[in-house]
Amino acid sequence: MVLNYIWVAFFVVAFIVAVIKLLFMGDTEIFTALVNSTFDSSKNAFEISLGLTGILALWLGIMKIGENSGMIQALSRWLSPLFCRLFPDIPKGHPAMGSIFMNLSANMLGLDNAATPMGLKAMKELQELNPKKDTATNPMIMFLVINTSGLILIPVSIMVYRAQMGAAQPTDIFIPTLLTTTVSTLVGVTVVSISQRINLLCRPVFILIGCIGLLFAALIWASTQVSREAMGTYSTLTANIILFCIILLFILWGVWKKVNVYDAFIEGAKEGFTTAVRIIPYLVAFLVGIAVFRASGAMDMLVDGIGYVVGLTGMDTSFVGALPTALMKSLSGSGANGLMIDTMKEYGADSFVARMSCVARGASDTTFYILAVYFGSVGISKTRNAVTCGLIADLSGIIAAIIISYLFFG
User: Fold this and answer.
1) What's this model's pTM, rounded to 2 decimal places?
2) CB within 8 A of 372, min separation 6: which ones?
3) Which segment of 70-79, 83-92, 125-134, 179-188 scores lowest on mean pLDDT?
4) Distance separating alpha carbons of residues 128 and 292, to the nearest angstrom
5) Nearest CA to 6 among 386, 306, 398, 326?
6) What is the mean pLDDT of the chain?
7) In angstroms, how far is CA 177 from the centroid of its own chain?
8) Integer angstrom CA distances of residue 143 from 101, 126, 235, 359, 394
9) What is the DSSP code (8-state) at residue 110?
């Protein structure tokens, strides 16, 4: 229901802003821009889905090998002590546990192409446990909010963009981004846990937090031991090695378990096409809504309004220039990337605004895109409080990005 209201709001607000521009500013091209944006975004939605087809086929095929060989079930049993706390409604040892783990691991490594198919696989398995097929379950909401909070260990793509824009130290946003995305994830998990009455004060959760803390400390230490220029190269190389090793491990595990890995892969890959086709309507719906909202200028008016209100309080408004990126990331990943690059062009890659824009971009993931694709893949129309919890995590990420950016770069 929340998604319904937000989608309608995109069009209503865009129309109101367009009428104001037409009547009071004489902008006779505004409605042409709105209509063109609907055509362009519809085409873009199809192209995105088409591009996902091959990737989905690859990873769903690999996951089917893991399922037939028992590897996913083994992962599920190993993760039960922790995941049974976060997802108490999922039976112990259920295959969904393994798929969720694979998805979250890929996200943390920044492997988006691998994360989405694994996430769709997890949603399909969670839907099998769902007594109300059109309504999101508690595990679905927890899973998607963790996804939208965007916990990532090394923001490789953002550092690459900074290098391309001529930043003197492309990796200087590494630690601030790591801290910011951790805040958004912790807030997202906490909000969902409170709404679902999940007790997180337990040993497995404390062990996880300790392990993540040690991992973060190791990453920060490693970043001080290599040159900043080499950091991006090493990060990309490490992620790609891990990714290929995962593929090889699944195949070899299947061979060891005497599974016909080729037939298993083909069986799983067939699901890739049907899944890609199934999500097209949901992608078209939200990308069109987001496109008209942007084309109308409503986003610019929102940012200018925030800057005006902040200015009235006497507070520093330097961060306002980074807000378009911060707000856009909840709606569109490519849009946020474009705004981030524009900010670096306008203010300079090493300016406070540009750095904060990069930190805000890495603070969380594209909430509406993830919800539309993941829920759409299994036919969920009643999302309950998933959108609200996801947006709270987003907001906490924006606030953390502002505070942490001032601490590091202000």
Assistant:
1) 0.76
2) 3, 279, 282, 283, 285, 286
3) 70-79
4) 36
5) 386
6) 81
7) 14
8) 10, 10, 26, 23, 15
9) T
